[in-house]
Target: Adenylate kinase
Amino acid sequence: MKRINVIGTSGSGKSHFSRRLAQKLDFPCIEMDAVFWLPNWEHLDTEDFLAKLKSLMEQETWVLDGNQSKTNALKWQYVDTIVWLDYGFFHTFKQILIRSFKRSWSKQENWEGTGNIESFRRNFFSSESVILWMLQNYWKTKRKYTKLFAGELSNSVRLVRIKSPKQAELFLANA
Model:
């Protein structure tokens, strides 16, 4: 494991898990959202995003946190291991509610230098809500990754499917 992509639906804990895994392995952690998002909730256009991501993925080792489908063709050129945090719906929903509440309350910047701060309005009463996004995409993401793990990558990449926080802790302990 030298180039690891941690995937999962919004709220699954990808960023937290990725940071812990990177720290344990002494690898850089690349958070795709931190690369993608600009100040005022603007984002890089696809071409610039992929170019910036490519330059980061040319390092010898890393843990990449993120899902964005538009990055798949690029990621799959580099990745040797994919870790899928595939927690149950209710666990993930609980996690995203807690995270959204904490971020709204703390007013802590999501990605350094962006000034992007989550609010109760944005998280709970907006069409841009990450909670709404999770509710709309949980099952679609699960189907997509089930297919991915049964498909062509299964022959060339180590695939790890983690279905519980207990399994996640065990994986981290043995990494």
User: Anything to note?
Assistant: The radius of gyration is 16 Å.
